Batch of 2 targets.
Target 1
Amino acid sequence: MKLDYEKLKEKDLLEEIKVEVDKSAFEGPLKCIECGKNMTKVKSSISLPDVDITVHFKIWKCSKCNREYLDGDQAKKLDMLLEFENILKEKTLKFERAINFDGQSFFVRFPAEVTKNWNKNIKAEIKALSSTDFFVHVHK
Ligand SMILES: [Zn+2]
Protein backbone atom coordinates (compact mmCIF):
# COMPACT_ATOMS: atom_id res chain seq x y z
CA MET A 1 0.00 0.00 0.00
CA LYS A 2 1.38 3.36 -1.00
CA LEU A 3 1.20 6.15 1.56
CA ASP A 4 -0.77 9.14 0.32
CA TYR A 5 0.52 11.82 2.67
CA GLU A 6 -1.88 14.46 1.43
CA LYS A 7 -4.93 12.45 2.46
CA LEU A 8 -3.41 10.69 5.44
CA LYS A 9 -5.34 10.61 8.67
CA GLU A 10 -3.50 10.28 11.96
CA LYS A 11 -5.10 6.87 12.54
CA ASP A 12 -3.95 5.60 9.13
CA LEU A 13 -0.43 6.80 9.71
CA LEU A 14 -0.11 5.07 13.06
CA GLU A 15 -1.41 1.83 11.59
CA GLU A 16 0.89 2.18 8.61
CA ILE A 17 3.92 2.67 10.87
CA LYS A 18 3.11 -0.49 12.79
CA VAL A 19 2.83 -2.50 9.60
CA GLU A 20 5.74 -1.08 7.63
CA VAL A 21 8.61 -0.77 10.10
CA ASP A 22 11.11 -3.56 9.61
CA LYS A 23 12.85 -3.72 12.97
CA SER A 24 15.88 -5.59 11.64
CA ALA A 25 16.75 -3.03 8.99
CA PHE A 26 16.64 0.43 10.52
CA GLU A 27 19.99 1.46 9.07
CA GLY A 28 19.35 0.59 5.44
CA PRO A 29 19.67 0.23 2.58
CA LEU A 30 16.31 -1.38 2.98
CA LYS A 31 14.95 -3.98 0.62
CA CYS A 32 11.35 -3.71 -0.49
CA ILE A 33 9.12 -6.19 1.33
CA GLU A 34 6.93 -6.44 -1.77
CA CYS A 35 9.47 -7.06 -4.53
CA GLY A 36 12.91 -7.35 -2.86
CA LYS A 37 14.55 -4.43 -4.71
CA ASN A 38 16.84 -2.03 -2.85
CA MET A 39 15.14 1.17 -1.85
CA THR A 40 16.46 4.71 -1.82
CA LYS A 41 15.78 7.59 0.53
CA VAL A 42 13.63 10.23 -1.08
CA LYS A 43 12.16 13.49 0.14
CA SER A 44 8.52 13.44 1.14
CA SER A 45 6.23 15.65 3.16
CA ILE A 46 3.23 15.42 5.38
CA SER A 47 0.61 18.14 5.73
CA LEU A 48 -1.12 18.83 9.00
CA PRO A 49 -3.95 21.00 7.67
CA ASP A 50 -5.58 21.63 11.05
CA VAL A 51 -2.49 23.49 12.23
CA ASP A 52 -1.31 24.80 8.81
CA ILE A 53 2.01 23.01 8.97
CA THR A 54 3.76 20.96 6.31
CA VAL A 55 6.77 18.94 7.36
CA HIS A 56 9.41 17.60 4.98
CA PHE A 57 11.23 14.40 5.78
CA LYS A 58 12.86 11.46 4.05
CA ILE A 59 11.26 8.10 3.41
CA TRP A 60 12.47 4.87 1.81
CA LYS A 61 10.98 4.32 -1.62
CA CYS A 62 11.17 1.30 -3.90
CA SER A 63 12.18 2.29 -7.44
CA LYS A 64 10.36 -0.70 -8.92
CA CYS A 65 6.95 -0.85 -7.23
CA ASN A 66 6.92 2.62 -5.60
CA ARG A 67 6.11 1.32 -2.11
CA GLU A 68 7.09 3.78 0.59
CA TYR A 69 8.38 2.90 4.04
CA LEU A 70 9.37 4.63 7.24
CA ASP A 71 12.32 3.33 9.25
CA GLY A 72 12.37 3.33 13.06
CA ASP A 73 13.84 6.83 13.48
CA GLN A 74 11.44 8.29 10.96
CA ALA A 75 8.48 6.59 12.64
CA LYS A 76 9.56 7.99 16.03
CA LYS A 77 9.85 11.49 14.59
CA LEU A 78 6.42 11.24 13.00
CA ASP A 79 4.93 9.94 16.24
CA MET A 80 6.38 12.96 18.05
CA LEU A 81 5.16 15.28 15.31
CA LEU A 82 1.62 13.95 15.72
CA GLU A 83 1.87 14.45 19.47
CA PHE A 84 2.88 18.06 18.91
CA GLU A 85 0.03 18.48 16.45
CA ASN A 86 -2.35 17.34 19.18
CA ILE A 87 -0.79 19.85 21.56
CA LEU A 88 -1.31 22.63 19.00
CA LYS A 89 -4.91 21.50 18.46
CA GLU A 90 -5.40 21.46 22.25
CA LYS A 91 -6.46 17.81 22.03
CA THR A 92 -4.09 16.48 24.66
CA LEU A 93 -4.77 15.74 28.29
CA LYS A 94 -3.77 18.89 30.10
CA PHE A 95 -3.41 19.58 33.80
CA GLU A 96 -2.13 22.56 35.72
CA ARG A 97 -0.04 21.93 38.82
CA ALA A 98 1.68 24.16 41.35
CA ILE A 99 5.47 24.19 41.03
CA ASN A 100 6.95 23.12 44.35
CA PHE A 101 10.30 24.13 45.85
CA ASP A 102 12.19 21.97 48.35
CA GLY A 103 14.83 24.59 49.21
CA GLN A 104 17.15 23.53 46.38
CA SER A 105 15.14 22.46 43.36
CA PHE A 106 11.81 23.06 41.76
CA PHE A 107 9.60 20.06 41.07
CA VAL A 108 6.14 19.25 39.77
CA ARG A 109 3.88 16.46 41.01
CA PHE A 110 1.99 14.37 38.46
CA PRO A 111 -1.66 13.57 39.13
CA ALA A 112 -2.20 10.05 40.47
CA GLU A 113 -4.47 9.21 37.53
CA VAL A 114 -1.54 9.28 35.08
CA THR A 115 1.04 7.55 37.29
CA LYS A 116 -0.83 4.30 38.08
CA ASN A 117 1.63 2.15 36.11
CA TRP A 118 4.80 4.02 37.09
CA ASN A 119 7.46 2.52 39.32
CA LYS A 120 10.56 3.83 41.11
CA ASN A 121 12.88 2.94 38.22
CA ILE A 122 11.34 5.17 35.58
CA LYS A 123 13.10 8.28 34.38
CA ALA A 124 11.97 11.52 32.84
CA GLU A 125 13.71 12.93 29.79
CA ILE A 126 13.03 16.66 29.64
CA LYS A 127 13.46 18.60 26.43
CA ALA A 128 13.39 22.37 26.78
CA LEU A 129 11.36 23.84 23.93
CA SER A 130 11.86 27.33 25.33
CA SER A 131 12.53 28.84 28.75
CA THR A 132 8.87 28.27 29.64
CA ASP A 133 7.91 25.21 27.58
CA PHE A 134 9.14 21.68 28.24
CA PHE A 135 8.42 18.29 26.75
CA VAL A 136 8.67 15.48 29.31
CA HIS A 137 9.09 11.90 28.12
CA VAL A 138 8.71 9.26 30.85
CA HIS A 139 10.52 5.98 30.23
CA LYS A 140 12.20 2.99 31.94
ZN1 LIG B 1 9.21 -2.85 -4.40
Target 2
Amino acid sequence: MRDLFLLTLGAAVFGCSQAVYSQQSNPSPVPVPVSSTSGGGNLLGLPPLSVPVDNPQTPAKIALGDKLFHDKRFSVDGTISCATCHDASKGFTDNLPVSAGHHGLTGTRNAPTVINAAFFKSQFWDGREPDLERQSKQPFVNPVEAGLPNHQPILDIVREDPDYKAAFTEVFKVGGPQLTMDHVAKAIASFERSIVAGNSAFDRYYFTGDKTALTEQQQRGFQLFLGQGRCVSCHTIEQDHALFTDNRFHNIGIGINAVQQDLPRLTQAFFEAKIRGGDVDKIVLTDKKSSELGRFAINDSFNDIGAFKTPTLRNIALTAPYMHDGSLKTLKEVVNHYNNGGVTPADAQATAFLSGGIRPLNLTDVQIDELVAFLEALTSDQYAKNGAKTGGSHE
Ligand code: HEC
Ligand code: HEC
Protein backbone atom coordinates (compact mmCIF):
# COMPACT_ATOMS: atom_id res chain seq x y z
CA MET A 1 0.00 0.00 0.00
CA ARG A 2 2.75 2.40 1.00
CA ASP A 3 4.68 1.33 -2.07
CA LEU A 4 1.70 2.01 -4.28
CA PHE A 5 1.38 5.41 -2.67
CA LEU A 6 5.04 6.16 -3.27
CA LEU A 7 4.81 5.05 -6.88
CA THR A 8 1.84 7.30 -7.63
CA LEU A 9 3.38 10.16 -5.71
CA GLY A 10 6.67 9.71 -7.58
CA ALA A 11 4.90 9.79 -10.93
CA ALA A 12 2.75 12.75 -9.94
CA VAL A 13 5.55 15.02 -8.81
CA PHE A 14 8.04 14.06 -11.42
CA GLY A 15 6.70 16.36 -14.10
CA CYS A 16 6.89 19.41 -11.90
CA SER A 17 10.41 18.71 -10.70
CA GLN A 18 11.53 18.68 -14.34
CA ALA A 19 9.90 22.00 -14.98
CA VAL A 20 11.62 23.56 -12.01
CA TYR A 21 15.08 22.12 -12.38
CA SER A 22 15.89 21.53 -16.01
CA GLN A 23 17.01 24.67 -17.70
CA GLN A 24 16.34 23.43 -21.21
CA SER A 25 12.92 22.11 -22.03
CA ASN A 26 13.35 19.50 -24.72
CA PRO A 27 10.22 18.44 -26.52
CA SER A 28 9.19 15.34 -24.63
CA PRO A 29 10.33 12.54 -26.87
CA VAL A 30 8.15 9.48 -27.14
CA PRO A 31 10.44 6.49 -26.75
CA VAL A 32 10.25 3.92 -29.50
CA PRO A 33 11.42 0.39 -28.78
CA VAL A 34 14.21 -0.81 -31.03
CA SER A 35 13.44 -4.47 -31.33
CA SER A 36 16.67 -5.40 -33.06
CA THR A 37 18.56 -4.62 -29.85
CA SER A 38 16.84 -7.28 -27.78
CA GLY A 39 17.63 -10.94 -28.02
CA GLY A 40 20.84 -12.90 -27.89
CA GLY A 41 24.55 -12.22 -28.00
CA ASN A 42 25.82 -9.45 -25.76
CA LEU A 43 22.24 -8.35 -25.16
CA LEU A 44 20.96 -11.64 -23.76
CA GLY A 45 18.67 -10.92 -20.82
CA LEU A 46 18.02 -7.25 -21.65
CA PRO A 47 14.65 -5.76 -22.66
CA PRO A 48 14.23 -3.87 -25.96
CA LEU A 49 15.95 -0.48 -25.76
CA SER A 50 13.76 2.62 -26.03
CA VAL A 51 15.26 5.38 -28.15
CA PRO A 52 13.67 8.86 -28.24
CA VAL A 53 12.07 9.57 -31.62
CA ASP A 54 13.95 12.84 -31.88
CA ASN A 55 17.34 11.23 -31.25
CA PRO A 56 17.70 8.06 -33.33
CA GLN A 57 20.89 6.01 -33.01
CA THR A 58 23.38 6.25 -35.90
CA PRO A 59 26.98 5.00 -35.97
CA ALA A 60 28.33 8.50 -36.68
CA LYS A 61 26.38 9.99 -33.76
CA ILE A 62 27.57 7.28 -31.39
CA ALA A 63 31.18 7.92 -32.47
CA LEU A 64 30.72 11.65 -31.89
CA GLY A 65 29.24 10.99 -28.45
CA ASP A 66 32.18 8.72 -27.64
CA LYS A 67 34.62 11.54 -28.48
CA LEU A 68 32.67 14.07 -26.39
CA PHE A 69 32.47 11.62 -23.47
CA HIS A 70 36.27 11.40 -23.42
CA ASP A 71 37.14 15.07 -24.04
CA LYS A 72 38.93 16.61 -21.05
CA ARG A 73 38.86 20.09 -22.54
CA PHE A 74 35.26 20.43 -21.32
CA SER A 75 36.40 21.06 -17.73
CA VAL A 76 37.72 24.07 -15.89
CA ASP A 77 41.25 22.68 -15.48
CA GLY A 78 41.39 20.43 -18.56
CA THR A 79 41.68 17.22 -16.53
CA ILE A 80 38.12 15.89 -16.30
CA SER A 81 35.94 14.13 -18.83
CA CYS A 82 32.91 11.93 -18.33
CA ALA A 83 35.28 8.98 -18.65
CA THR A 84 37.32 10.15 -15.64
CA CYS A 85 34.49 8.99 -13.40
CA HIS A 86 32.89 6.51 -15.80
CA ASP A 87 35.93 4.53 -16.95
CA ALA A 88 35.29 1.56 -19.25
CA SER A 89 38.09 -0.40 -17.58
CA LYS A 90 36.34 0.03 -14.20
CA GLY A 91 32.87 -1.03 -15.30
CA PHE A 92 32.17 2.59 -16.28
CA THR A 93 32.71 3.81 -12.70
CA ASP A 94 35.77 5.21 -10.91
CA ASN A 95 35.91 2.59 -8.13
CA LEU A 96 36.12 5.45 -5.60
CA PRO A 97 33.77 5.86 -2.62
CA VAL A 98 32.76 9.31 -3.89
CA SER A 99 33.92 10.86 -7.15
CA ALA A 100 36.76 13.35 -7.51
CA GLY A 101 36.36 16.23 -9.94
CA HIS A 102 38.60 19.10 -11.01
CA HIS A 103 41.49 20.03 -8.69
CA GLY A 104 40.77 16.87 -6.72
CA LEU A 105 37.54 18.28 -5.26
CA THR A 106 35.33 15.49 -3.99
CA GLY A 107 31.60 15.22 -4.33
CA THR A 108 29.17 13.49 -2.01
CA ARG A 109 28.13 10.49 -4.08
CA ASN A 110 29.40 7.30 -5.62
CA ALA A 111 29.55 7.23 -9.43
CA PRO A 112 27.04 4.66 -10.71
CA THR A 113 27.90 2.65 -13.80
CA VAL A 114 26.80 4.00 -17.16
CA ILE A 115 26.43 0.42 -18.45
CA ASN A 116 22.69 -0.09 -19.05
CA ALA A 117 21.77 3.39 -17.73
CA ALA A 118 19.92 3.68 -21.06
CA PHE A 119 17.23 1.42 -19.59
CA PHE A 120 16.55 3.37 -16.39
CA LYS A 121 13.34 5.36 -16.02
CA SER A 122 15.23 8.18 -14.30
CA GLN A 123 18.86 9.20 -13.89
CA PHE A 124 20.97 9.87 -10.77
CA TRP A 125 20.61 8.25 -7.35
CA ASP A 126 17.64 10.48 -6.59
CA GLY A 127 16.17 10.31 -10.13
CA ARG A 128 16.38 14.07 -10.56
CA GLU A 129 16.73 13.90 -14.35
CA PRO A 130 14.33 11.96 -16.54
CA ASP A 131 16.67 10.88 -19.33
CA LEU A 132 20.24 10.68 -20.56
CA GLU A 133 19.94 13.82 -22.67
CA ARG A 134 19.11 15.98 -19.68
CA GLN A 135 21.46 14.14 -17.33
CA SER A 136 24.48 14.71 -19.54
CA LYS A 137 24.40 18.51 -19.36
CA GLN A 138 24.83 18.61 -15.57
CA PRO A 139 28.36 17.31 -14.85
CA PHE A 140 29.99 19.99 -17.03
CA VAL A 141 28.70 22.79 -14.82
CA ASN A 142 28.70 21.04 -11.47
CA PRO A 143 31.19 22.83 -9.19
CA VAL A 144 32.80 19.57 -7.97
CA GLU A 145 32.79 17.75 -11.32
CA ALA A 146 33.97 19.50 -14.51
CA GLY A 147 33.48 22.88 -12.81
CA LEU A 148 32.69 25.07 -15.83
CA PRO A 149 30.84 28.32 -15.05
CA ASN A 150 28.35 27.60 -17.88
CA HIS A 151 28.20 25.62 -21.13
CA GLN A 152 29.70 28.35 -23.32
CA PRO A 153 33.31 27.03 -23.24
CA ILE A 154 32.06 23.72 -24.66
CA LEU A 155 30.14 25.44 -27.44
CA ASP A 156 33.21 27.53 -28.28
CA ILE A 157 35.25 24.36 -28.76
CA VAL A 158 32.72 22.30 -30.73
CA ARG A 159 31.93 25.25 -33.03
CA GLU A 160 35.62 25.88 -33.79
CA ASP A 161 37.44 22.53 -33.65
CA PRO A 162 37.67 21.20 -37.24
CA ASP A 163 36.94 17.57 -36.29
CA TYR A 164 33.89 18.52 -34.24
CA LYS A 165 32.71 20.94 -36.91
CA ALA A 166 32.79 18.17 -39.49
CA ALA A 167 31.15 15.64 -37.18
CA PHE A 168 28.28 17.90 -36.06
CA THR A 169 27.67 18.90 -39.67
CA GLU A 170 27.52 15.25 -40.70
CA VAL A 171 25.36 14.07 -37.78
CA PHE A 172 23.00 16.98 -37.11
CA LYS A 173 23.54 19.22 -40.18
CA VAL A 174 24.38 22.11 -37.85
CA GLY A 175 27.29 24.44 -37.23
CA GLY A 176 28.02 27.86 -35.75
CA PRO A 177 25.37 29.36 -33.48
CA GLN A 178 22.84 26.72 -34.54
CA LEU A 179 24.98 24.13 -32.78
CA THR A 180 23.68 24.05 -29.19
CA MET A 181 24.12 22.02 -26.02
CA ASP A 182 21.08 20.01 -27.07
CA HIS A 183 23.14 18.55 -29.93
CA VAL A 184 26.07 17.84 -27.62
CA ALA A 185 23.73 16.16 -25.13
CA LYS A 186 22.02 14.10 -27.82
CA ALA A 187 25.32 12.77 -29.13
CA ILE A 188 26.51 11.84 -25.63
CA ALA A 189 23.18 10.15 -24.87
CA SER A 190 23.42 8.15 -28.11
CA PHE A 191 26.86 6.94 -27.13
CA GLU A 192 25.53 5.93 -23.72
CA ARG A 193 22.68 4.01 -25.38
CA SER A 194 25.36 1.93 -27.07
CA ILE A 195 26.81 0.98 -23.66
CA VAL A 196 24.40 -1.83 -22.93
CA ALA A 197 25.38 -5.29 -21.79
CA GLY A 198 23.62 -8.48 -20.76
CA ASN A 199 24.96 -11.98 -21.34
CA SER A 200 26.27 -12.91 -17.91
CA ALA A 201 26.49 -16.42 -16.49
CA PHE A 202 23.11 -15.71 -14.86
CA ASP A 203 21.53 -14.84 -18.23
CA ARG A 204 22.76 -18.06 -19.79
CA TYR A 205 21.44 -20.02 -16.81
CA TYR A 206 18.06 -18.31 -16.58
CA PHE A 207 17.17 -17.25 -20.11
CA THR A 208 18.77 -19.99 -22.22
CA GLY A 209 18.39 -22.81 -19.70
CA ASP A 210 22.11 -23.62 -19.51
CA LYS A 211 22.09 -25.25 -16.07
CA THR A 212 25.89 -25.47 -16.03
CA ALA A 213 26.34 -21.70 -16.36
CA LEU A 214 26.09 -21.18 -12.58
CA THR A 215 28.05 -23.13 -9.98
CA GLU A 216 26.01 -24.96 -7.35
CA GLN A 217 26.97 -22.31 -4.83
CA GLN A 218 25.70 -19.59 -7.18
CA GLN A 219 22.47 -21.53 -7.80
CA ARG A 220 21.86 -21.68 -4.05
CA GLY A 221 22.63 -17.95 -3.92
CA PHE A 222 20.04 -17.35 -6.64
CA GLN A 223 17.41 -19.18 -4.59
CA LEU A 224 18.29 -16.94 -1.61
CA PHE A 225 18.03 -13.88 -3.88
CA LEU A 226 14.48 -14.93 -4.79
CA GLY A 227 13.44 -16.33 -1.41
CA GLN A 228 14.85 -15.74 2.04
CA GLY A 229 16.86 -12.66 0.96
CA ARG A 230 13.86 -11.07 -0.79
CA CYS A 231 16.29 -9.14 -2.98
CA VAL A 232 14.15 -9.64 -6.09
CA SER A 233 11.33 -7.53 -4.67
CA CYS A 234 13.36 -4.42 -5.54
CA HIS A 235 16.11 -5.79 -7.82
CA THR A 236 13.54 -7.22 -10.19
CA ILE A 237 13.77 -10.08 -12.68
CA GLU A 238 11.08 -10.37 -15.39
CA GLN A 239 10.11 -13.42 -17.37
CA ASP A 240 12.10 -12.51 -20.47
CA HIS A 241 14.62 -9.97 -19.18
CA ALA A 242 16.21 -8.63 -16.01
CA LEU A 243 17.45 -5.15 -15.14
CA PHE A 244 17.57 -5.87 -11.40
CA THR A 245 15.87 -2.56 -10.63
CA ASP A 246 12.25 -1.59 -10.01
CA ASN A 247 13.21 2.02 -10.95
CA ARG A 248 11.81 3.12 -7.61
CA PHE A 249 13.24 4.75 -4.48
CA HIS A 250 13.75 3.11 -1.10
CA ASN A 251 15.48 3.91 2.15
CA ILE A 252 17.59 0.87 2.97
CA GLY A 253 19.43 2.46 5.89
CA ILE A 254 22.52 3.91 4.19
CA GLY A 255 23.91 7.25 5.39
CA ILE A 256 20.69 8.29 7.09
CA ASN A 257 21.85 7.79 10.67
CA ALA A 258 24.48 10.49 10.25
CA VAL A 259 21.79 13.12 9.63
CA GLN A 260 18.87 11.73 11.63
CA GLN A 261 19.21 14.26 14.47
CA ASP A 262 19.59 17.13 12.08
CA LEU A 263 16.59 16.41 9.83
CA PRO A 264 14.21 19.17 10.97
CA ARG A 265 16.85 21.83 10.32
CA LEU A 266 18.12 20.19 7.12
CA THR A 267 14.73 19.75 5.48
CA GLN A 268 13.74 23.33 6.37
CA ALA A 269 17.02 24.73 5.02
CA PHE A 270 16.57 22.69 1.87
CA PHE A 271 13.04 24.00 1.25
CA GLU A 272 14.32 27.55 1.71
CA ALA A 273 17.24 26.99 -0.66
CA LYS A 274 14.87 25.67 -3.31
CA ILE A 275 12.54 28.63 -2.91
CA ARG A 276 15.53 30.93 -3.42
CA GLY A 277 16.12 29.13 -6.74
CA GLY A 278 18.95 26.85 -5.58
CA ASP A 279 20.10 24.23 -8.09
CA VAL A 280 19.44 20.76 -6.66
CA ASP A 281 22.24 19.17 -8.72
CA LYS A 282 24.76 21.53 -7.11
CA ILE A 283 23.37 21.37 -3.58
CA VAL A 284 23.24 17.60 -3.28
CA LEU A 285 26.66 17.00 -4.80
CA THR A 286 28.46 19.65 -2.73
CA ASP A 287 26.74 19.37 0.64
CA LYS A 288 27.16 15.98 2.27
CA LYS A 289 24.20 16.33 4.61
CA SER A 290 21.79 17.53 1.91
CA SER A 291 22.91 14.58 -0.22
CA GLU A 292 21.50 12.23 2.42
CA LEU A 293 17.99 13.62 1.92
CA GLY A 294 17.78 11.41 -1.17
CA ARG A 295 14.55 11.45 -3.13
CA PHE A 296 13.04 13.98 -0.71
CA ALA A 297 15.23 16.63 -2.33
CA ILE A 298 13.34 16.10 -5.58
CA ASN A 299 9.74 15.51 -4.54
CA ASP A 300 9.53 17.19 -1.11
CA SER A 301 7.96 14.01 0.27
CA PHE A 302 8.92 13.23 3.87
CA ASN A 303 8.23 9.58 3.07
CA ASP A 304 11.21 9.64 0.76
CA ILE A 305 13.84 11.01 3.14
CA GLY A 306 16.99 8.96 2.58
CA ALA A 307 15.38 7.00 -0.25
CA PHE A 308 17.56 6.31 -3.28
CA LYS A 309 16.98 4.67 -6.64
CA THR A 310 17.34 0.90 -6.70
CA PRO A 311 20.53 0.42 -8.72
CA THR A 312 20.95 -2.35 -11.26
CA LEU A 313 23.04 -5.29 -10.07
CA ARG A 314 24.42 -6.12 -13.52
CA ASN A 315 28.23 -5.97 -13.46
CA ILE A 316 28.11 -5.27 -9.73
CA ALA A 317 31.34 -7.21 -9.11
CA LEU A 318 33.19 -4.56 -11.16
CA THR A 319 31.82 -1.45 -9.49
CA ALA A 320 32.91 -1.48 -5.83
CA PRO A 321 32.57 0.33 -3.50
CA TYR A 322 28.81 0.33 -3.09
CA MET A 323 25.75 2.44 -2.27
CA HIS A 324 25.04 6.11 -2.99
CA ASP A 325 27.79 7.17 -0.59
CA GLY A 326 30.26 4.40 -1.42
CA SER A 327 30.24 3.40 2.24
CA LEU A 328 30.22 -0.39 1.79
CA LYS A 329 33.48 -1.73 0.41
CA THR A 330 32.58 -5.25 -0.67
CA LEU A 331 29.57 -7.30 -1.74
CA LYS A 332 29.92 -9.20 1.49
CA GLU A 333 29.52 -5.96 3.47
CA VAL A 334 26.41 -5.24 1.40
CA VAL A 335 24.84 -8.61 2.15
CA ASN A 336 25.75 -8.23 5.82
CA HIS A 337 23.99 -4.85 5.84
CA TYR A 338 20.77 -6.45 4.56
CA ASN A 339 21.18 -9.42 6.87
CA ASN A 340 21.40 -7.00 9.82
CA GLY A 341 18.04 -5.52 8.80
CA GLY A 342 19.37 -2.37 7.12
CA VAL A 343 22.05 -1.31 9.56
CA THR A 344 25.85 -1.21 9.53
CA PRO A 345 27.38 -1.92 12.01
CA ALA A 346 25.07 -4.69 13.20
CA ASP A 347 24.33 -3.03 16.55
CA ALA A 348 23.31 0.35 15.10
CA GLN A 349 19.75 1.62 15.43
CA ALA A 350 17.52 1.14 12.35
CA THR A 351 16.12 4.42 10.97
CA ALA A 352 12.41 5.24 11.23
CA PHE A 353 12.48 5.95 7.49
CA LEU A 354 13.56 2.40 6.62
CA SER A 355 11.67 0.75 3.74
CA GLY A 356 9.14 -1.82 4.90
CA GLY A 357 10.92 -4.33 2.67
CA ILE A 358 14.08 -4.27 4.80
CA ARG A 359 14.25 -6.51 7.88
CA PRO A 360 16.74 -8.98 9.37
CA LEU A 361 17.21 -11.98 7.08
CA ASN A 362 18.75 -14.59 9.42
CA LEU A 363 21.21 -15.78 6.78
CA THR A 364 24.05 -18.05 7.91
CA ASP A 365 27.66 -17.29 6.97
CA VAL A 366 27.47 -20.01 4.31
CA GLN A 367 24.33 -18.46 2.84
CA ILE A 368 25.91 -15.00 2.84
CA ASP A 369 28.77 -16.36 0.74
CA GLU A 370 26.27 -18.04 -1.59
CA LEU A 371 24.45 -14.78 -2.17
CA VAL A 372 27.73 -12.98 -2.86
CA ALA A 373 28.71 -15.74 -5.32
CA PHE A 374 25.42 -15.22 -7.14
CA LEU A 375 26.04 -11.45 -7.41
CA GLU A 376 29.42 -12.26 -8.96
CA ALA A 377 27.60 -14.21 -11.71
CA LEU A 378 26.00 -11.00 -13.03
CA THR A 379 29.10 -9.75 -14.87
CA SER A 380 28.59 -9.42 -18.62
CA ASP A 381 31.03 -11.48 -20.67
CA GLN A 382 32.17 -8.41 -22.58
CA TYR A 383 33.35 -6.77 -19.33
CA ALA A 384 34.54 -9.89 -17.51
CA LYS A 385 37.78 -9.79 -19.43
CA ASN A 386 38.77 -6.60 -17.62
CA GLY A 387 39.75 -8.81 -14.71
CA ALA A 388 38.58 -6.03 -12.40
CA LYS A 389 38.36 -6.61 -8.68
CA THR A 390 35.48 -8.86 -7.75
CA GLY A 391 34.42 -6.88 -4.69
CA GLY A 392 33.43 -10.29 -3.43
CA SER A 393 34.10 -12.14 -0.23
CA HIS A 394 37.62 -10.79 0.18
CA GLU A 395 38.25 -7.60 2.11
C1 HEC B 1 33.61 13.97 -11.19
C2 HEC B 1 33.07 12.69 -11.54
C3 HEC B 1 32.00 12.62 -12.61
C4 HEC B 1 32.04 13.15 -13.87
C5 HEC B 1 33.11 14.03 -14.50
C6 HEC B 1 30.85 12.69 -14.53
N1 HEC B 1 30.12 11.90 -13.70
FE1 HEC B 1 28.41 10.93 -14.16
N2 HEC B 1 28.12 10.57 -12.23
C7 HEC B 1 29.00 10.85 -11.20
C8 HEC B 1 28.34 10.71 -9.92
C9 HEC B 1 28.96 10.91 -8.55
C10 HEC B 1 27.02 10.36 -10.21
C11 HEC B 1 25.88 10.18 -9.20
C12 HEC B 1 25.37 11.57 -8.83
C13 HEC B 1 24.02 11.57 -8.19
O1 HEC B 1 23.31 10.58 -8.31
O2 HEC B 1 23.65 12.58 -7.57
C14 HEC B 1 26.91 10.26 -11.66
C15 HEC B 1 25.78 9.85 -12.35
C16 HEC B 1 25.73 9.65 -13.71
C17 HEC B 1 24.66 8.99 -14.44
C18 HEC B 1 23.40 8.39 -13.81
C19 HEC B 1 23.43 6.89 -13.78
C20 HEC B 1 22.33 6.31 -12.95
O3 HEC B 1 22.30 5.10 -12.77
O4 HEC B 1 21.47 7.06 -12.45
C21 HEC B 1 24.99 9.02 -15.76
C22 HEC B 1 24.20 8.44 -16.92
C23 HEC B 1 26.25 9.71 -15.87
N3 HEC B 1 26.69 10.06 -14.61
C24 HEC B 1 26.89 10.05 -17.06
C25 HEC B 1 27.87 11.02 -17.11
C26 HEC B 1 28.23 11.78 -18.31
C27 HEC B 1 27.61 11.62 -19.67
C28 HEC B 1 29.24 12.62 -17.95
C29 HEC B 1 29.95 13.66 -18.80
C30 HEC B 1 29.09 14.68 -19.38
C31 HEC B 1 29.51 12.39 -16.55
N4 HEC B 1 28.64 11.45 -16.08
C32 HEC B 1 30.51 13.02 -15.83
C33 HEC B 1 30.31 11.21 -11.37
C34 HEC B 1 30.77 11.86 -12.50
C1 HEC C 1 13.47 -2.44 -0.45
C2 HEC C 1 14.18 -2.58 -1.71
C3 HEC C 1 15.47 -3.37 -1.74
C4 HEC C 1 15.68 -4.67 -1.33
C5 HEC C 1 14.69 -5.63 -0.71
C6 HEC C 1 17.06 -4.98 -1.64
N1 HEC C 1 17.66 -3.88 -2.20
FE1 HEC C 1 19.60 -3.76 -2.76
N2 HEC C 1 19.40 -1.76 -3.05
C7 HEC C 1 18.21 -1.07 -2.94
C8 HEC C 1 18.49 0.35 -2.99
C9 HEC C 1 17.46 1.45 -2.92
C10 HEC C 1 19.89 0.48 -3.09
C11 HEC C 1 20.69 1.79 -3.07
C12 HEC C 1 20.65 2.31 -1.63
C13 HEC C 1 21.54 3.49 -1.31
O1 HEC C 1 22.58 3.69 -1.93
O2 HEC C 1 21.19 4.22 -0.36
C14 HEC C 1 20.42 -0.87 -3.14
C15 HEC C 1 21.77 -1.17 -3.31
C16 HEC C 1 22.26 -2.47 -3.46
C17 HEC C 1 23.61 -2.79 -3.85
C18 HEC C 1 24.71 -1.79 -4.18
C19 HEC C 1 24.59 -1.37 -5.62
C20 HEC C 1 25.58 -0.32 -6.05
O3 HEC C 1 25.71 -0.10 -7.25
O4 HEC C 1 26.19 0.33 -5.19
C21 HEC C 1 23.70 -4.16 -3.88
C22 HEC C 1 24.92 -4.98 -4.25
C23 HEC C 1 22.41 -4.69 -3.49
N3 HEC C 1 21.56 -3.63 -3.26
C24 HEC C 1 22.11 -6.02 -3.37
C25 HEC C 1 20.95 -6.49 -2.75
C26 HEC C 1 20.77 -7.83 -2.26
C27 HEC C 1 21.78 -8.93 -2.40
C28 HEC C 1 19.53 -7.87 -1.67
C29 HEC C 1 18.89 -9.01 -0.92
C30 HEC C 1 19.63 -9.48 0.23
C31 HEC C 1 18.94 -6.54 -1.82
N4 HEC C 1 19.83 -5.73 -2.47
C32 HEC C 1 17.67 -6.19 -1.38
C33 HEC C 1 16.96 -1.62 -2.80
C34 HEC C 1 16.73 -2.89 -2.27
